[in-house]
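Backbone-to-sequence.
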């Protein structure tokens, strides 16, 4: 998988968040996206995956040399962000049954395997509204790590994780670095110090 960004810019109202970004990302070369508060790291990820449109520039996606249309890119990525909402009325088992009707688990992994991998096996029948913030974060990350999607977008991935959770994250993310295109938006080095490349987004000054 490859994503190419050419002269990308995003503004809200009349204020530019970032502008003139040109770069490329590819599978097997995990990349960190850093920048000060308000520089647009999270916004950049949202633009990349099509959650919000850019104001200028272009993004192209390709897999094995074949172009992917922007409206079809949703099929190829998973994203974990602090603002991502889960369906809290569902039990964990209900949520996973629903989610994996649209996404595919990695081959050889069952839903029971998944709950064990994210250390939630004892919580399958608990409503997600009753999960701690750390449990919810492990669930979000697990949906990215253990799917067949080609792209993994992580925004501040250890938010709400305790020491155990951070250690789990660092070990788990290592298992996908060669198989997925991984982008990590963060200023916390322990979240991305294994990345092979970095894009720094400067705070935009008009």
């Amino acid at each position: 998988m490859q994503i190419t960004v050419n002269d990308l810019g995003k503004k809200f109202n009349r204020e530019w968040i970032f502008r003139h970004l040109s770069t490329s990302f590819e599978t097997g070369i995990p990349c960190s996206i850093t920048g000060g508060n308000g520089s647009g790291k999270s916004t950049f990820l949202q633009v990349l995956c099509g959650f919000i449109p850019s104001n200028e520039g272009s993004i192209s996606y390709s897999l094995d040399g074949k172009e992917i249309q922007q409206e079809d890119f949703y099929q190829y990525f998973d994203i974990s962000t602090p603002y991502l909402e889960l369906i809290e009325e569902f039990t964990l088992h209900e949520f996973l049954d629903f989610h994996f009707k649209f996404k595919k688990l990695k081959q050889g992994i069952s839903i029971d395997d998944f709950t064990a991998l994210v250390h939630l096996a004892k919580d399958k029948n608990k409503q997600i509204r009753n999960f701690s913030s750390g449990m919810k974060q492990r669930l979000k990350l697990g949906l990215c790590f253990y799917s067949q999607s080609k792209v993994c977008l992580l925004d501040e991935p250890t938010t709400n994780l305790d020491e155990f959770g951070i250690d789990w994250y660092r070990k788990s993310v290592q298992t996908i670095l060669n198989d997925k295109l991984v982008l990590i938006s963060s200023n916390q080095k322990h979240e991305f110090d294994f990345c092979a490349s970095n894009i720094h987004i400067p705070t935009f000054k008009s």
